[in-house]
Amino acid sequence: MGTVEPLVVDLDDQRSGDPAVAGAKAATLARARTLGFPVLDGVVVPSAAGMPSVRAGVKALTATGSGGARLAVMAIEVDDDLADELRRSVERLGAPVVVRSSSPIENSGDFAGAFSSFDGIGPDEVGTAVRGVWASPFGVDALARCESAGVPVDDVAPAVLIQPEITPLFGGSAKVRTDGAVEVVATRGAPQKLMNGWDSGSVAVARVGEQPSGAAVELLGVPAFSAVVALARSVADGLGDNLVEWAWTVDGVVLLQARRAAEAPAPVEPPPALPVFREPAARRVAATVRRFPGALGESLVLPWALCDTNLPVSFPLEPVDDLLGVLDEARSLGAELASQAWGLPPNAAAAAAAELYRDLRGPDPRGAMAWLDRLAPVDPIAAARAAWLVETLVESATRLGYVEVPSQVWDLPAERLERVLEGTDATSLPVRSPADRWEPFVYGVVAAQGRSVTGVPVTDGVGAGRVVVVDDPESVGDVNRAIIVARRPIPALSSLLWRVAGLVTVAGSTAAHLFEVASSVGVPAVISVDFDEVIAGGIDELARRHLVGAIDGTTGRLWLLEEQ
């Protein structure tokens, strides 16, 4: 006879140390208990137990979306044998308990805080809470993160971790830095409000050989603070995980979770502060390359629009259906205008423009900027027509469903766009654009001419793009290569981070899960930015303005410049 797999596995059972069985969170805590770390007792419902429900959710997802998929999962009752085991486990652990997700993919910063946990659970509610964990991969934010990260929702395979609920005096996170210092973020009570972005917390950094000091030391007291620091260092040494979530109770420190913090990419040096970036012509170039970005803008518009062309700020974009005809006219008219500007045949003009782009984006754009004055003015009526054609093409291709967002059209060379419109290119188009090649130039101009405000640096890196205030992540629209600004670092913003150039929040804590996602995907981030310092009316007025921003996540600086 074959071995019968247990319905519920004790956290001290060696099988709980296998992420394929217990998920990353529970497996780490199981190993931590083995090494003597202060981890609460608990049990695990192995990930295999939830797979029939997950498969039902996947089946319903296509037809009924996120809500229907979650309902499909919740409609499948926990079988009687498992329900009995769950009740007995809760009675042994002592109600109430906390029921937490533990997926194999939760060891990635991409999925920090993505799945559900339930507290205050008794024996009669535990089956429902387990089903809630199985349904959580089908939440809107979790699905969006899976799509952005290229992870099939089936791979989430959540196990369920059940532990006694405690009432902490304090809670928070502690991160061991590469220099051996430990950054502690603490709050009164449970740490969830820190992780979810609703509490700023108190921060202190413990450095080797120095007396502890700072707001977190004052909140916790030296003994508790020192115990948290010691726990973080011991976990780093014993498990290799440099980020812990902890609670402080009347009995001392408790390890709630441990993982390896996402390694941010090597910091990108911002462009040098060159005097040429302060010139009006540089601002005009920055505005033009932002209005007509990507491969499409470089091929159809920039060869003639970088000269001093006085284009209308916007056009009435009438819907068109003959997109191939619009593209043909835009290519023909663009080549004619490029020839006018450069005084060269169209192919030679395109080659000269490409060389100018390289010089403008190079380490010293002064010579290239001087070249702009040598370009001949183009027919303004034809230029307005050409610009209208390209912007109408982008709007119509998006409206007719050839792409999901306008940035996907801008990213395409004209030749490939033609194949997409013909239906002969079935290759999927990425929703997230790579950093635009003009982004360092735009950054230099905004940093030279914009107003600056400084917050607290969180994630290294630099970026530039339009500023978008996000109050409702589900209806924000296209944020590709934008700097998004939010009031707090709430988890629902996470799925946007694969597409943006930067993240700024007014309040919240560096311990928020959102910043772990930002670090994992390489998005520069700054927190605690007071926009009232640079704009009367603060973030509310910022939402009404058309601004382009430059962000330096290493120094915590943000520059803002009116769109031209």
Would you tell me the overall average pLDDT? 91
What is the 3D form? Answer: globular
Which percent range fits the helix content?
Answer: 40-55%
Q: What gap, in angstroms, lies between the N and C termini?
A: 76 Å
The major beta sheet can be summarized as: 8 strands, mixed
In the CATH hierarchy, the architecture of the largest domain is: 2-Layer Sandwich
State the strand order across the main sheet.
11-18-17-13-14-15-16-12
Output the CATH topology of the largest domain: Dna Ligase, domain 1
Low-confidence stretches: none
Binned strand content: 15-25%
What is the count of β-strands?
18
The top-level CATH class of the largest domain is: Alpha Beta
3D architecture notes:
The chain has 564 residues and is α+β, with helices and mostly antiparallel strands. The protein folds into four domains: 9-164, ATP-grasp fold, A domain (Dna Ligase, domain 1, 2-Layer Sandwich); 170-259, ATP-grasp fold, B domain (D-amino Acid Aminotransferase, Chain A, domain 1); 294-422, no CATH class; 439-562, Phosphohistidine domain (Glucose Oxidase, domain 1), CATH 3.50.30. Helix content is 41%, strand content 17%. An eight-stranded mixed β-sheet has the order 11-18-17-13-14-15-16-12. Strand 17 (547-552) and strand 18 form a beta hairpin. Helix 12 (323-342) packs antiparallel against helix 17 (414-422). The longest helix is centred in the N-terminal third of the chain and has 28 residues, at 47-74. The chain is globular and about 85 Å long.
